[in-house]
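**Entry details**
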Amino acid sequence: MGTVHIEDIIIANQRLKDVVTHTPLQRNEVLSERYQCNVYLKREDLQVVRSFKIRGAFHQISSLSREELNNGVVCASAGNHAQGVAYSCRTLKIKGRIFMPSTTPRQKVDQVKFFGKEYVDVVLSGDTFDDSFNEAMAYCTDNEMAFIHPFDQEKIVAGQGTVGMEIMNDIDENIDYLFSSIGGGGLISGVGTYIKSISPHTKIIGCEPAGAPAMKESLKKGQVIELEKIDKFVDGAAVKKVGQIPFEICQSVLDDIVLVPEGKICTTILELYNQNAIVAEPAGAMSITALDFYKEEIKGKTVVCVVSGGNNDIGRMQEMRERSLIYEGLQYYFIVQFPQRAGALREFIQDVLGPDDDITRFEYTKKNNKSNGPVLLGIELKCRDDYPGLIDRLMKKGFDYQEINKDESLFHLLI
């Protein structure tokens, strides 16, 4: 099996230069001040399909033979790769068939149809990416069409590597650290290949969702392994199995992998929006979230974070705020058994709640006999240090309670 070299990325760049946007590399004042270093953001959220995926997709498809192009292409994707393939099909005026899980949000399906117009058919099938992937592969074989993989093809990796080429062309100083997300591994293996060839001292730090550490586990075992179950929250990077080609490249170009907690990513997304008016998707915000784990090492250094995409569904913002508050230790859920006496609720509000605590949810868990049933209670704190006092007052006042944050299955059931 071959690998990807700097020459492949230079060829990819030639092929892509009139199709993709050369996205800006911007020094970020807020982050540079916070971490006392120079933080640059590579803004792939401003790419034509709002993510880097167009690069690999277009390079792979445009490299096919005339006969293969006439037959059309097939891909499976729940999001950004599908948009990249759809855009490429329309640009090259070829037919594409895109398999997406039936659970894909309508907004993403609509985007794919918008970018592909009449050149693309979207097939919704199965509940997971793996289901649609298997169906896409079967369709490919039956119809002798070319399959465009989201990350495990050399030309896909070379196309994604053009992100690294643009970064090196746009920066005047030496890069000490580059942070980039890892899903299947196509982006970081391409970017890492280019940057290590030009600047071997630059440390390449991969960022993976804590709930889907497929690359970290594979590197630990020395071979590509498949995770049994993953947290799908970081939809652009939550994969059970990384690509074989990216894995082999990552063995030589990666310096470290940071596992980034999903709740912390949500905090970053909200901060990026509020402080910089940047809309990042969870996978796109991972590289910035990871800076916290490298605070000491990056002081005084030059750091680049790849913001890999900005396809964030506004309907998820409430869930993201919630996850952020829980991660930051500001949102708690309890089941509280109120004593059977008059004024118990008033007593709870006056004597148990702190002056800055907010009740964000209050519902009786029983539909009848509400007067003495257990209550599902959400409490938001102003400061995480207020938590011990709240628990102390709950116990002193004799309220029986169960904290749901600490019980994963109960949490998913009720919240």
